[in-house]
Specification:
The chain is an alpha+beta fold. The chain is built from 1 helix and 3 strands. It has one helix spanning 42-53, and strands spanning 2-8, 56-61, 67-73. It has a 3-stranded antiparallel beta sheet with strand order 1-3-2, with helices on one face. Strand 2 (56-61) and strand 3 (67-73) form a beta hairpin.
Length: 94
């Protein structure tokens, strides 16, 4: 396995939300007057893709400094994983 990490220095993720932050449509700020945008899908999609390839994704809080997100990927993942062709919307009609 190869391990990667990303240090997030933004809003601290409270302990009670750390278990659900990878759920779809979940964000740290839940009020309607949020300071930050987004739909709350990025971490859910990322976790799903990492797990499909055979890796794991988790976070470790850094109190007063945000969180560090870790993920592992197999160093030699299975080449039988099905991939979908990426269609460029700018060239879709050509």
């Amino acid at each position: 396995m190869v391990e990667f990490f990303i240090k997030f220095t933004g809003v601290e993720i409270p302990k009670e939300l750390q278990c659900v932050i990878f759920d779809r449509f979940r964000q740290v700020e839940t009020s309607y007057a949020r300071r930050f945008g987004g739909a709350g899908l990025g971490l859910a999609i990322t976790k799903h893709l990492v797990e499909v390839i055979g890796g794991k994704l988790w976070l470790e809080p850094q109190p007063q400094h945000g969180s560090t997100f870790f993920f592992t990927l197999p160093a030699d993942f299975d080449s039988d994983i099905k991939t979908l062709p990426i269609k460029n919307s700018c060239n879709a009609d050509k």
